[in-house]
Write a structure and sequence with these properties.
Elements (H helix, E strand, L loop, with lengths): L1 H9 L9 H4 L7 H10 L6 H9 L5 H18 L12 H22 L2 H17 L3 H19 L2 H32 L10 H21 L2 H17 L3 H16 L7 H16 L3 H12 L7 H16 L3 H13 L8 H19 L17 H6 L2 H4 L6 H14 L3 H6 L1 H12 L6 H15 L4 H16 L17 H11 L10
Helix pairs in contact: 1-5, 3-5, 6-7, 7-8, 8-9, 9-10, 9-11, 10-11, 11-12, 11-13, 12-13, 13-14, 13-15, 14-15, 15-16, 16-17, 17-20, 20-23, 22-23, 23-24
């Protein structure tokens, strides 16, 4: 069912009259069209719902399997006929789809022996691919044209022209593939886990050194994109956020200099620039960068939510808590939120817990909009973040800390006392030896002192002073930890917790 829903998302109902799926349907009330319409309208989302919708109680699994297989085949056949008049597509994206469609036609024509029209279309496709840095198409088209003019026409001048083009772009494509390999090796270590990977990040610098010469020589879209990403990972690995910002600006200028409109790479490097500006505490600059990025992406897209998350973190670190709450509410209220991957929703649920913590402390207020937020329940929150709860050296740190914060601020002291041993064991096992998590280690030590000191404010200040100094000795910008772990700087969280304590001891009932 997931593959069908993906195809339906691409082939919308507004294009129905152009689709092979409908042309093959005998009548408007055919079973295929009925199924297609239900998927488009969102009436069915699972196989169980589809069976009930199509057949009622008298369904047959074999009939449904055949129907689903036939619909899938027809949708795939219709892909090449989808119109490219989507206003969200820029010139380069349209060129990509047109080149892919036309090149598929070239290969079919050659196979069928229609060489004259195939060569004509290949030359047209090659010209467009060269203009828009579609390296793989250039490699294939120049190879076909080299063969044609060398073996069928005998035009040595054109044959040599296409031969030189083929060799040049084959080299460019080889470096693109190498950059992709390097980037994949680095990123594979970060999937579903946000803890800093210092060794992998250092390796990125070695990879970048191997391809930076090719980036200067060829300057193709994909090579510049992946190569610059590797360089940024390398600088971030050594906390060189100044060079990270500089690298982002260089990459953005390289793409702005292209002879066509570019959005995705520029947005990506703006994103990386914001992360560095958060670490450098360049909040005003980061806000301007985020606004520039917002102008490149439609609301409700995956990248829009990424940008909103950065705006949220930026606001929290700048202590603009009211604005942070408004950014959060705007994001989770958007209808596109429900379409996000579950792991992305988990990240927003962690943010939601910290937003509720701010509200609990009176640092922000939504007024009437507050009614749109779910009431925070600790048990439900923990059930809604299963992936990151297993990421013991990554986002689980933020999950653990917000649990403790709520227990203390809401004066659920008995529960807080009961968690001391388990929290300390977690700290020793997962935080103590990891240099990238030293700030988290010291902060959890500070929190542990609170129940140990009977929640007495003066006693807590005395007992936690040593760890507080150790925390401040490692500023966030040199901590080498993922920005998402410390959603609100620990120094600020500590102040909030202290404000909630009283000048008296909590006596535990036996």
């Amino acid at each position: 069912m997931r593959t069908l829903l993906e195809l339906i998302r691409i082939i919308t109902k507004s294009k129905a009259r152009h689709l092979e799926v409908l042309e093959k349907a005998p009548e408007d009330n055919s079973m295929v069209l009925h199924f297609y319409g239900a998927l488009c309208d969102g009436k069915v989302k699972t196989d169980e719902e589809a069976l009930q919708f199509l057949y009622g109680a008298n369904y047959k699994h074999s009939s449904y399997r055949n129907l689903k297989s036939g619909l899938k085949r027809r949708l795939l056949n219709s892909l090449l006929f989808v119109h490219l008049d989507d206003p969200s597509l820029n010139e380069q994206e349209r060129a990509y789809y047109n080149c892919q469609k036309d090149w598929a036609a070239v290969k079919v024509l050659l196979r069928k022996g229609a060489r004259h029209i195939a060569v004509e279309l290949a030359e047209k496709t090659l010209k467009l691919a060269l203009k828009f840095d579609l390296t793989e198409i250039v490699v294939q088209a120049s190879q076909v044209l080299r063969f044609h003019y060398g073996t069928r026409i005998g035009d040595l001048k054109k044959m040599q022209e296409y031969d030189e083009l083929h060799k040049k772009y084959t080299d460019a494509w080889r470096f693109e593939s190498l950059a992709e390999e390097y980037y994949t090796l680095i990123i594979a270590n970060f999937i579903n886990e946000r803890a800093a990977k210092a060794a992998s990040s250092r390796q990125a610098l070695k990879y970048f050194d191997r391809i930076k010469g090719a980036m200067t020589e060829y300057r193709t879209y994909r090579l510049l994109f992946l190569g610059n990403l590797l360089r940024i990972i390398a600088y971030r690995s050594v906390n060189d956020y100044g060079r990270t910002v500089e690298s982002c600006e260089q990459a953005i200028r390289a793409f702005e200099a292209k002879g066509y409109e570019v959005k995705t790479p520029i947005y990506t490097f703006l994103h990386q620039q914001i992360l560095a500006q958060i670490q450098l505490k360049q909040f005003e600059e980061g806000d301007r960068t985020a606004r520039k990025a917002a102008g490149l992406i439609p609301a409700g897209t995956v990248n829009w939510f990424v940008n909103m998350e950065l705006l949220l973190i930026l606001s929290l670190h700048a202590r603009h808590y009211q604005r942070a709450c408004e950014v959060f509410l705007e994001a989770v209220s958007h209808r596109g939120f429900r379409k996000l991957r579950e792991i992305d929703k988990e990240q927003w649920r962690i943010h939601e817990a910290y937003i509720h913590f701010l509200l609990e402390n009176g640092k922000a207020a939504f007024g009437q909009a507050n009614g749109q937020l779910r009431k925070f329940r600790l048990g439900r929150f923990l059930n809604e973040v299963p992936v990151f709860s297993r990421d013991k050296q990554g986002m689980n740190v933020a999950i653990l800390i917000v649990q403790i914060l709520f227990l203390i601020v809401k004066k659920r002291y008995k529960e807080a006392v009961g968690r001391i041993d388990s929290v300390n064991k977690y700290r020793v096992r997962y935080l103590y030896r990891d240099k990238a998590l030293r700030r988290s280690n010291y902060f959890v030590k500070m929190l542990i002192q609170i129940p140990l000191c009977g929640f007495h404010k003066a006693a807590v200040l005395r007992k936690s002073e040593k760890y507080h100094k150790q925390l401040k000795a490692i500023p966030l910008e040199v901590a080498n930890q993922t920005y998402g772990i410390e959603i609100i700087p620990y120094e600020d969280l500590w102040d909030f917790v202290l404000e909630s304590l009283e000048p008296r001891f909590y006596k535990r009932r036996r």
